[in-house]
Amino acid sequence: MEYMSQEGYDKLVAELHQLERVELPRVREAIAEARAQGDLSENFEYHAAKREQGRLLSRISFKQKVLENARVLDTNRLASDTVGLLSKVEITNLGNNARTTYTIVSPHEANIQERKISIKSPIAQALTGRKVGDIVEVRVPAGLQRLRIESITL
Fold it and tell me: Whole-angstrom Cα distance, residue 2 to residue 67?
């Protein structure tokens, strides 16, 4: 079972819809055009389109499985005093006093440009279950970091 936000669920549904309704028909049309050119054994366009079709079908199948097992979390029922899934956490890196805010999301919603980190990431795992004012140590690729939780919101 995979817990996620309503926004993440809706985005996944939209991606699946795009793949099934737009991308797959485009690739199938490319296969038909390439097949119409004759000899398939040396037809690069045909083989490229078939590879693309396989890749798309694999992505569609993966997204369908994720949606089958997805459960949308009701943010009204989540605790806002401890860090958990869908929490927006402001932290201070005690090594350089830099403040950063992250939203902790499911692995399928993670996007570092949007400051959304996976619940399975080392930072999120270290923060999970902690409260405002707690100091946590987390091992990241850059080394050991000490982080203080400044605020938690949903």
Answer: 9
Going residue by residue through the chain (154 aa), what tens digit of pLDDT does each one get?
A: 888 889 999 999 999 999 999 999 999 999 998 888 877 777 888 889 999 999 999 999 999 999 999 999 887 777 778 999 999 999 999 999 999 999 999 998 999 999 999 999 999 999 999 999 999 999 988 889 999 999 999 8
Q: Is the pTM of this model over 0.70?
A: yes
